[in-house]
């Protein structure tokens, strides 16, 4: 696991569930090879793989948890129950973002700002 993602995952794991309803809590991840939550506030509506969110465990009683958008490797998506804890998203409804949408809107948007130049 890359150190930057490990820190983000640790912070998310310690974040109270009540904060999940606040869209500003999500983390924008757009480095090649770094997977996780996508802050869609600065991007158009994402193209998702499934029309309904995937949720592995119910949220705590009384908690209102908003769905999140995730860009994850296909193997993690296929076996989400095994990998959701790594992303701090087992009790959260998850929409999996399509790779082509991520490439077009997230990665290329950041390359235009000087991030990731020369990387593909």
Task: Note down, in words, how this protein is organized.
Helix content is 28%, strand content 8%. With 120 residues, it is of the alpha+beta class. It has one domain. Strands 1-2-3 form a three-stranded mixed β-sheet, with no helix packed on it. The N terminus and C terminus are likely disordered.
What is the H-and-E element order? HEEHHEH
Strand content: 5-15%
What multimeric state do the chains show?
single chain
Give me the number of helical elements: 4
The largest β sheet comes out as: 3 strands, mixed
Strand order of the largest sheet: 1-2-3
Q: C-alpha Rg, in Å?
A: 14 Å
What percentage of residues falls in helices of 4 or more residues? 25-40%
How many β-strand runs? 3
Labels describing this entry:
120 residues, alpha+beta, three-stranded mixed sheet, 4 helices, disordered C terminus
What is the structure about, briefly put?
The chain has 120 residues and is an alpha+beta fold. The protein has helices at 3-14, 74-78, 80-83, 99-111; strands at residues 36-37, 68-71, 94-96. It has a 3-stranded mixed β-sheet, with no helix packed on it.
Question: Helices and strands in order, then pairings?
Answer:
Layout: H1 3-14, E1 36-37, E2 68-71, H2 74-78, H3 80-83, E3 94-96, H4 99-111
Parallel strand pairs: 2-3
Antiparallel strand pairs: 1-2
